[in-house]
Design goal:
Blueprint: E1 8-13, E2 15-19, E3 23-29, E4 40-51, E5 59-64, E6 67-75, E7 78-82, E8 87-90, E9 95-99, E10 104-110, H1 112-117, E11 119-129, E12 140-144, E13 151-153, E14 159-165, E15 167-168, E16 171-172, E17 181-188, E18 193-197, E19 203-210, E20 212-215, E21 218-221, E22 224-228, E23 233-237, E24 246-253, E25 261-263, E26 266-268, H2 271-282
Antiparallel strand pairs: 1-22, 2-3, 3-4, 4-11, 5-10, 6-9, 6-11, 7-8, 7-10, 9-12, 13-14, 14-17, 15-16, 17-24, 18-23, 19-22, 19-24, 20-21, 20-23, 25-26
């Protein structure tokens, strides 16, 4: 029986903008034409940037409420600390899945070594919405070092995947999500062809961040996001004559279909809840980072 492939229904080119204390990101969503990607709120590609000594900047103390942030490092190191006592360092290949829930103040900065000596930084931050029932849960962290992220290769060895959430090539993620989500990092060498099952009813996207891939038969280049229609799977391919591999993320999840009201780092369901978040933050209800 043939597989019902998900077609590419829209193609968006990421725009560049300045974030935090002045670092540049490529952002495929939100854009003017795609405000949200339910259940996802935002995807930022940080870098790749090579900093000289004293040049590296990040995102100093800032609040969050009502959603999750997923930080995935490809190169470099980031140090984080927060108002509920968590602190640590993310290195290349590591993942931090932070459920901000009821509220947290967070700081994310290139490591002291990179700030002093310079170095290359490349990674992603994905914002995942929380359903209304979970908006005010207690903050939670899942910090997964690269050696615990499941990886797999296709039978011919031309496709490689790291499974941050969901399943791919028979491997299942170790990260727990509050709603069903798939988050894969694929490397496709020339000649690679894989079919990736994605449950019907999930919203699904493919973001290419290196080279060019064919997504369900359509060419998608570096810095482009392909929005997929419904179906059971997506095909990911790189022609054999290509001169470089393709790198891409597959993102899919069950849409929440709930009202989204956002104000900077607060994402809730009503204007009243946003006002409450602002009051709580300004009154010190989120605490402070102890240093």
């Amino acid at each position: 029986m043939s597989t019902d492939l998900r077609p590419v229904v829209d193609l968006v080119t990421a725009h560049r903008q300045r974030e935090g204390a002045g670092f540049i990101v490529r952002r495929p969503f939100p854009t003017a034409g795609r405000r949200h990607a339910d259940p996802f709120l935002m995807l930022d590609e940080m870098g790749p940037s090579t900093y000289g000594p004293g040049e590296a900047v990040g995102a100093p103390d800032h609040p969050h409420r009502g959603f999750e942030t997923v930080t995935y490092m490809l190169d470099g190191e980031f140090e984080h600390e927060d108002s509920v006592g968590h602190r640590g360092t993310l290195g290349a290949g590591d993942v931090q899945w932070m459920t901000a829930g009821s509220g947290v103040i967070h700081s994310e900065m290139p490591s002291e070594r990179i700030r002093k000596e310079g170095g290359r930084v490349h990674g992603f931050q994905l914002w995942v919405n929380l359903p209304a029932r979970d908006k005010m849960v207690a903050p939670r962290y899942q910090e997964i070092p690269r050696e615990r992220i499941p990886e797999a290769d296709s039978e011919d060895g031309l496709a490689h995947v790291r499974v941050l959430a969901g399943e791919a090539l028979g491997r299942s993620a170790v990260i727990e999500t509050r709603t069903p989500i798939a988050y894969h990092d694929w490397t496709l060498r020339p000649g690679a062809s894989v079919t990736v099952p994605l449950p019907r009813g999930y919203t699904a996207y493919v973001y290419v961040f290196g080279g060019t891939a064919r997504v369900s038969g359509r060419a998608v280049g570096d810095g482009q996001l392909a929005a997929l229609g419904d179906g059971e799977a997506v095909t990911l391919e790189v022609p054999g004559e290509a001169t470089e591999p393709a790198r891409l993320l597959v993102l899919a999840g069950v849409p929440l279909r709930e009202p989204v009201v956002s104000y900077g780092p607060f994402v809730m369901n009503t204007e009243q809840q946003i006002a409450e978040a602002v009051r709580d933050y300004r009154s010190g209800g989120f605490g402070a980072i102890a240093r």
